[in-house]
Amino acid sequence: MYKKYLIVVSRMDLAGMNIARQLFQFRDNPFFASMKDGGAGFDVQYCDEVILFNSSLDMEKIEKYDFIIFASRHQSEQHRKTLSVHAPGNWTEKAEFGGEPKRVSRASALFQKELFETLHKNVKESKLKDFEITMEVTHHGPLLDKPCVFIEIGSTMEEWNNRTASFVVAKTIADCVKNFKVNKYREVAFGIGGPHYCPDFNKIQMKSNVAIAHVIPKYALPLTEEMLREALGKTDEEIDFAVLNWKGFANAEERQQVIDILDKNYIKYKKISEVK
């Protein structure tokens, strides 16, 4: 499905640069040589500015690739030690950190699921301790019409400089580039409700047959038809249903408003508890 991957990092980003340095040990052959034998491979693009803004990126170069992976640092006020995965985009009028209001980037639910599962596997094998592995909801820029994903190390200088963490992220990227294949037996969904970090959706991504790309958080509600069009139209795979974080809404009225819009647009939904 995807053959040519571009890993994008910022020279201003300590975690991103450390991941990029680790990545090169996983490149047995130069990128263009790997393309000749039909196998998947990756190249690395360095940016001088932060990678949240389209103006920082070489968009002409990006157009030559099938899939874009942004490797970066993650910052949080709680200073959580995290390895996180999420799609970029903005659900609301706010676009303070890149992208455009009410628009999200293309994403692959199947690739994000494999990235998440592989991250767990490599953390265990590398004996990296005390890091929380988590999805995040869709947020911040850039805005791309190429399937893309962020994989991040959070959230202080100590974690950004952690050599094992950068190795784990680099190996995860390399493993997924090499091994990703479309699993036609997966069910594909998008998530609605809950907090910025996704403990309940994490369980689905890790322990079920359902693959999730975009997540619309509680703080982005009320749900609109425009948001639905973005979630459905910006997922590379056909969506089977929405997954609702039943307890992750402000109140019953907000939950019912979501259900009414889904029903109006003939979109099936399941509670998290109904996903096997």
- CATH topology description of the largest domain: Aminopeptidase
CATH class of the largest domain: Alpha Beta
Summed up, the domain count is 2
Oligomer: single chain
pLDDT averaged residue by residue = 95
Q: From N to C, what is the helix and strand string?
A: EHHEHEEHEEHHEHEHEHE
Query: Which secondary-structure class do the elements indicate?
Result: alpha/beta
How are the strands ordered across the major sheet? 2-1-3-6-4-5
CATH superfamily of the largest domain: AF0625-like
End-to-end distance = 27 Å
Beta-strand segment tally:
10
Low-confidence stretches: none
What does this structure look like?
The model has no long low-confidence stretch (mean pLDDT 95). The chain has helices at residues 14-23, 31-36, 59-62, 109-126, 157-160, 163-179, 199-207, 225-233, 252-264, and strands at 4-10, 41-47, 67-74, 82-86, 132-135, 148-154, 187-192, 210-216, 241-244, 269-271. By secondary structure, the protein is of the alpha/beta class. It has nine helices and ten strands. Helix 7 (199-207) links the parallel strand 7 (187-192) and strand 8 (210-216). The longest helix is centred in the middle third of the chain and has 18 residues, at 109-126. Helix content is 33%, strand content 21%. It is globular. It has two domains: 4-179, Aminopeptidase (3-Layer(aba) Sandwich); 187-274, AF0625-like (Rossmann fold).
